[in-house]
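Design job #97: recover the sequence.
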């Protein structure tokens, strides 16, 4: 049984070619694209929705933070592909909801909903790399993905700026829904990367609330706490910087 599982995992590694890298890159970029692509349209959104469009960024980040506590334990228990399918489905529904919103409360709600799904992309893309490769090779792969991911904050506002010239801000969220649908279809070519031997038997026998407690206990461990806090601060700057720069340049 173990030999068969090892052969399956070896076959999965061999299938990880250019298409695998491109799919993971798209999953990594979905969060940045979701926060940056509509920045040029925020003044128009604030006028149409009669509210502070910046709340859509806040709502997205809140949903993104909460979702990580949920999807991590689920992916360790049920594998990587199932949470990705569900997450991208939520992302599509959230994007459609944003496109159809008529006031600020509606769009903030759907942005939180959108973030609950968008979170699965970058989080599980990293987990898949960790499943398949050794520490050194995984670091190389993640570096490559991060370079590609860095394109999203640059390309997003450029795309959104051109779209707002010829159409309304609603079309930007329709575009995000289409991108989500394309990524969802690409998952059919994405293999399951979590080997059965790496799935802890104890996780399968635990309830979801117990899994959340386990994740919380790991996070507060002294060895992980300080690096985790520093990394999250860097991510806050990474996602917040384009928004701040946009407002400074606009004024």
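Job complete. Output follows.
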């Amino acid at each position: 049984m173990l030999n068969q599982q090892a052969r399956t995992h070896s076959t999965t590694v061999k299938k990880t070619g250019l298409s695998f890298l491109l799919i993971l890159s798209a999953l990594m970029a979905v969060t940045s694209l979701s926060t940056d692509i509509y920045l040029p349209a925020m003044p128009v959104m604030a006028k149409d929705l009669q509210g502070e469009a910046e709340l859509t960024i806040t709502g997205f980040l809140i949903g993104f933070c909460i979702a990580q506590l949920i999807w991590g334990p689920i992916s360790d228990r049920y594998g990587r592909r199932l949470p990705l399918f569900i997450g991208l489905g939520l992302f599509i529904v959230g994007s459609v909801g944003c496109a159809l919103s008529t006031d600020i409360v509606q769009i903030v709600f759907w942005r939180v909903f959108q973030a609950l799904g968008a979170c699965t992309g970058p989080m599980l893309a990293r987990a898949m790399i960790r499943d398949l490769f050794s520490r050194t090779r995984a670091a190389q792969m993640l570096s490559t993905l991060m370079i590609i991911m860095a394109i999203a904050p640059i390309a997003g506002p450029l795309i959104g700026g051109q779209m707002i010239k010829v159409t309304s801000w609603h079309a930007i969220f329709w575009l995000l829904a289409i991108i989500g649908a394309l990524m969802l279809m690409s998952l059919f070519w994405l293999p399951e990367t979590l080997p059965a031997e790496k799935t802890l038997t104890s996780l399968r026998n635990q309830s979801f609330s117990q899994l959340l407690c386990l994740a919380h206990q790991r996070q507060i461990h002294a060895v992980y706490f300080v690096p985790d806090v520093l990394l999250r601060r860097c991510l806050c700057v990474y996602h917040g910087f384009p928004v701040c720069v946009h407002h400074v340049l606009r004024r």
